Amino acid sequence: MDDNMQISGARALDFLKMFDFVREAGTCGEQAAAGKIRSYLEQNVSGPGITLREEPFSFEESRILEACLEVTEPYQKAYRAVGCVGCGSTPECGVEAPFLYVENGDSISLAYAKGKIVLVNGTVGKEMYQRLTDAGAAGFVMLSGTPIDEGEDLRPARRSLRGVKETPIQGVTIHFRDAAELVERGASKVRLAVRQKKVTGTSRNLILRIEGSDRAEEILTVSAHYDSVPEGPGAYDNMAGAAIVMELSRYFSAHRPRRTMEFLWFGAEEKGLYGSLDYVERRREELASHRFNMNVDLAGQTIGGTVIGVTGDPEICRILSAYAHEAGMGVSFKNQIWGSDSNSFAWKGIPAMTLNRDGFGMHTRHDTAALISAWSLERSSRLLAMVARRLASAEVFPFPRKVPENFREELNRFFCP
What's the rounded Cα separation, in Å, for the pair 170 and 192? Predict the structure, then answer.
């Protein structure tokens, strides 16, 4: 019998359904999820040479206290707004300035942005924030949602600004339909206010270690985050990934690998990769033994494309592609840094990958188990098991432990603004 037959998508889906609740980092929901994962491991994955640890850690985040956006000229109206987490606070009375729609933030539009509160399509990330700051904008407004939303979906999405040390301007998110009204009614002056404060939260990582047989000094990691955003229960992002890691931990507990393997369930990924950063920081002395990280983030939906993002030597893509061909599973490869926990490993010089599947509903209330498929979970689990099995059993590890310098430079900018 093919060893992969011991991997079950139906069992992975049953595991995932145990977590149909919000698991925002630092809350009782995330703590309850960590307890469930630990209990499941204690009951189902055990044996000689297998150890389980729980590692709590603290993290700092910004908490929004107030956010508002109101038009003051040529009409007066307050719009529902959600503050951008991490962009700092305005003066207590807010900022009032002329309003300008700069669409995608092109250079022509931004030439007229000085001293204005600007509306930008989509999300303002680190790069766009710098462009707005350089243009002299007085504040920014993002939009979320679609023109056909109704009911709860009219609530603006919560957005975060990460990787920015200095925050001279503040911003909010409003719904798409309100943004369209601002433009169509000719809003010429608006007042924007955001107040937030720093708070400390506690999260935890779960680490299952399976000691290798005759290459125990070399370590492979298989990881996924189990926390969610507060807007929904995060089945696709990323309890599906956590379920895949669970399936592989069961498989390798029954098929002892030559190399040591650690199966990792990270907390507080959604807050800024805090779980994986804590993991690599605690293991500074051991990291020289780590050869490769196999991360999963976004998985489980039936319709979509499978992508493996590799942050490492291009040769890794070729090798993993050969494994995927052997498994008969279609995969696209991208050789780049990835916005997930694999970055924390690559930053420390450990080649890493993230297995990802296209899907719907990320960071919304629609990200539920109803959209997750046993077929998709099994398919991704088998693919990752194929990769992990080959790497864990190879006589000579097939690629070097190095991350190209251009990726290291990009990661330094990502983690050290």
Answer: 8
The overall pTM is greater than 0.85: yes
What kind and span of H or E run contains 318? helix 314-327
Gyration radius of the chain's alpha carbons: 23
In this structure, is the dihedral angle defined by the CA atoms of residues 276, 411, 349 and 351, taken in order, positive or negative? positive
Q: Which two tokens stand for residue 47?
A: 């044996």
Residue 416: Cβ-neighbour burial (10 angstroms; 0-12, 13-18, 19+): exposed
| Residues of the chain where predicted confidence (pLDDT) is lower than 70 | 1-5, 417
Rounded to whole angstroms, how far apart are CA atoms 399 and 391? 10
The Cα 27–Cα 33 span in angstroms is 10
**pLDDT digits over 107-120, tens only?**
999 999 999 999 99
Q: Which amino acid is at 212?
A: G
Task: Supply the DSSP string of 247-316, one letter for each residue.
Answer: HHHHHHHHS--SEEEEEEEES-STTTSHHHHHHHHHTTTTGGGEEEEEEE-S---SSS-EEEEEES-HHH
Burial class from Cβ neighbours inside 10 Å (0-12, 13-18, 19+) for residue 411 reads buried
> CB of 234 within 8 A of CB of 227?
yes
Residue 168 is classified by DSSP as -
**Chain-centre distance for alpha carbon 27:** 18
Q: Could you report the per-residue pLDDT of 32-87, keeping only the tens digit for each?
A: 999 999 999 999 998 999 999 999 999 999 999 999 999 999 999 999 999 999 99
